[in-house]
Amino acid sequence: MFSGGHRAAVIPLLAAAFSFSATSAETFSECTTRLAKQAISEGVDPQAAETIFSQLEYQPRVIELDRSQPEFVQTFPGYFSKRVTDWRVNKGREMFDKHEVLLHQLHTKYGIPPHYLLAFWGLETNFGSYKGKMPVLDSLATLACDQRRSKYFTQELLVAVKLMQREALKQEDMVGSWAGAMGHTQFMPSAYTHYAVDGDGDGQANLWDSEVDALSSAANFLAELGWQPGYRWGREVQLPEGFDYRLSGYKNRRSLAEWQALGLTRADGSPLSRTDMTAYVVVPAGHNGPAFLAYQNFRTIMRWNNSEFYAIAVGHLADRISGAAPLIAPLPELPAYSRDDIIALQQALNAAGHDVGKPDGIIGPATRAGIREYQLQQSLIADGFPSMQVMQSLGVKTSQTEADS
Predict the structure, then answer these.
(1) Where are the beta strands (DSSP E) in 261-353?
(2) What's the pTM?
(3) 294 secondary structure, DSSP code
(4) Partner of 288 for a Cys bridge, out of 70, 89, 203, 332, CB 3.0 to 4.6 A?
(5) pLDDT for 372-384, tens place per residue?
(6) 275 class by beta-carbon count within 10 Å (0-12 exposed, 13-18 middle, 19+ buried)
(7) H-type helices in 126-244, by residue range?
(8) Which CATH architecture has domain 5-58+132-181?
């Protein structure tokens, strides 16, 4: 019983090549047998568990993708220009025409304006044109049986199996991303279980086949994440000459009235609203790029995907779908740093007495703070951005420097 079936038998060498969850000697078949028993202990029907877990296949590509790191660090202009496109804007408007009645109903019920739901849908799956092709249960089982994040993916797998039974889904129809995100809105199983709703009233919350269910579920999810009805995500702004970039970042939230007093305006130069609503300055491409004020709903977007780049893209795409103009500030050409370049930068900052933690090649808050401290020390514009000037001043030889030499 729960032997893993004939499919598991074709991968013994692959299974032996990786460490699974309990011991390095545990094969994928043994792991799925154990997981099946756990599923039964959590209420899954024994016969269903035997059928489901015996058909699971190990997916080596999932492990490859989980381990892979991009060679180059994504710049904001590169990220933004690939995501906020004329095609997505026009398609979003087309989908608004298609679902106008539904979108207004969801706005009334959940407080989420139509253009935001369309922006999430567009960024996640190109409005449903690409929902992923990996078998979700196989992917989750592969990650659950891998030591790196076994606990998290074990829970997601078990939730997915229960979800499959609850919604009468077919195992072969459950396809998605390599990490197990599913449907038009790319919900992980736990989000699907807690926030997906049956919008079309057919008795099933199906995020693959029902656009109505998907949009309704996205609205419910955002409302539960804390969306503040009646407020924007943020906006592009113009910073005053000589702006102190030490005032940027989440820790430096101020009211719009205070920001206006400091000289900030809307991107077109018109005044900000003089309200007590708090916001913070985001400068994703350094002082040569666009600047934004991020409101509370910006943080709600980041609860969907914890990335400032993503939140800006969602917000601006939503604005464009609703008729707003493109960004006013141009997107600068930025150096293409490799992860090794950023590791070298972090090492140099640590050596110079600016503690940014263990070098990992990721430009996070600690690294930006360290860069800002160094820039202040060197009388540079302290925007916390790793410009070539900063790299050269610290003596960091980058891949771009070598390519230009």
Answers:
(1) 265-266, 278-282, 291-294
(2) 0.90
(3) E
(4) 332
(5) 999 999 999 999 9
(6) exposed
(7) 136-144, 150-166, 189-195, 211-225
(8) Orthogonal Bundle (1.10)
